[in-house]
Design brief:
This protein has helices spanning 3-41, 48-55, 59-63, 80-114, 120-124, 136-167, 172-185, 187-207, 212-237. Residues 73-80 and 129-134 have low confidence and may be disordered. The protein has one domain (3-237). The chain is mostly helical. The two termini are 38 Å apart.
């Protein structure tokens, strides 16, 4: 394959990856708007921030479309990387969905008890609690903090194991262990990156909804490429699992 063919192939791969990322962003945006519409219909709009925070848990699945951007030399077992990547992705999907279901269940209870005891949710789940204080503002800040924690969780438990499986596969379990070790080594970088994803996701959806179509993919691509390059550098020195 000559240089021109390689350049054309690289261009097509980039276009495909970024195109799929845009489609994923549009899908999340459409789901978010649909949820917001029905929350307004049932007069529980304050609950929307919980869904915005929960959406972050599915960031690792969105990031999978960017994996072809990473160049990895082919090894003798042609499909080993893909096979392990799919196993990691399946495990990530299971864990993230479980966290999302647990979180939304808890969010419904917290909202019904401390924010709006007369809401549709409170009546549907038969939640009764006497509380005279209005904790709507506290509920908002609590969700914003959780958005950062969910973003950090998605980076450590979701994005990194799949990224390691793509770059230097050591098996599903070892990939998760390596992801924890890598996150522990670069705690500050992970904290800032998690904050960037959380801010780029939640705030636009709450206050400037169309900005989400730009902020989310830019944040995801920037964080993904930064950590993939950092991981490749660490791989060359064999330091990321120390």
């Amino acid at each position: 394959m000559n240089y021109k063919d390689k350049s054309q192939q690289t261009f097509l791969v980039k276009c495909s990856c970024y195109g799929l990322l845009v489609l994923s962003t549009l899908l999340i945006f459409a789901i978010a708007q649909t949820i917001q519409f029905y929350l307004k219909h049932y007069d529980i709009s304050s609950m929307y921030v919980s869904f915005c925070a929960g959406f972050i848990l599915f960031t690792p699945l969105v990031v999978l479309v960017l994996h072809p951007l990473i160049f990895v030399e082919k090894i003798s077992e042609e499909y080993s990387h893909f096979s392990v990547l799919m196993k990691n992705a399946g495990l990530v999907l299971l864990v993230q969905c479980l966290f999302f279901i647990i979180w939304m269940t808890d969010a419904i209870a917290v909202y019904s008890i401390y924010v709006d005891q007369n809401s549709f949710l409170a009546k549907a789940f038969n939640i009764n609690h006497t509380n005279s204080a209005d904790l709507t503002t506290e509920f908002l800040w609590f969700n914003l903090l959780l958005a950062w924690l969910f973003s950090l969780l998605s980076l450590v438990l979701g994005i990194m194991p799949c990224l390691i499986a793509r770059i230097d596969n050591n098996g599903v379990v070892k990939n998760f262990v390596a992801g924890f070790s890598f996150a522990k080594k670069f705690k500050a970088k992970f904290g800032v990156s998690a904050l960037a994803i959380a801010v780029a996701t939640v705030l636009p959806l709450l206050y400037m909804k169309y900005l989400f179509l730009l902020s989310f993919p830019v944040a995801v691509v920037s964080v993904f490429l930064y950590f993939s390059n950092l991981l490749l550098e660490q791989k060359n020195t064999k330091q990321y699992i120390d």
